[in-house]
Amino acid sequence: MSAAILFWTLTTAQVLLALAMVATIYRVIKGPRAQDRIVSLDALYVNAMLLLIVFGIRYGTAIYFEVALIISLLGFVGTVALAKFLMRGEVIE
C-alpha cells in the first residue's frame, strides 16, 4: 500500500511541478517588465531543481540530487547577476 501511495504522490508532484514550469515560462515570455521576467526565471530554476529532486527520489539515484545542487548554485548566481545588471547597468565593475 505504501509503495502505491509513494508512486502516486511522486507522479502528482511531477505533474504539478511541470505545470508550474509552464506557468513561469509563460511569465518569462509575457512579462511586462524585466523585473517580472527575472523573478519568473528564479521561480523556473527552483521548479526545475525540485523536479530533479523528485526524479531522484523516484529512481533512487544520487546524480539527480547533484544536478539539482548545481542548478541551484548557478540559478542563484544568475539571479544576482541579472539583478545587479538591472540596478547599475553593468555586472562587472
TrEMBL record:
Family: Belongs to the CPA3 antiporters (TC 2.A.63) subunit F family.
Family matches, as InterPro entries: MrpF/PhaF-like
Any one Pfam family match given in the protein's UniProt record, by short name: MrpF_PhaF
Superkingdom of the organism of origin: Bacteria
Species lineage: Bacteria, Pseudomonadati, Pseudomonadota, Alphaproteobacteria, Hyphomicrobiales
Source species of the chain: Devosia yakushimensis
Membrane topology: Multi-pass membrane protein
Keyword Cell membrane attached: yes
Main location: membrane
Keyword terms of this UniProt record: Antiport, Cell membrane, Ion transport, Membrane, Transmembrane, Transmembrane helix, Transport
Bilayer-crossing regions: 6-26, 38-57, 63-87
Localization, UniProt: Cell membrane
Name of the molecule in the record: K+/H+ antiporter subunit F
PANTHER family: NA(+)/H(+) ANTIPORTER SUBUNIT F1, NA(+)_H(+) ANTIPORTER SUBUNIT F
UniProt key word Oxidoreductase: no
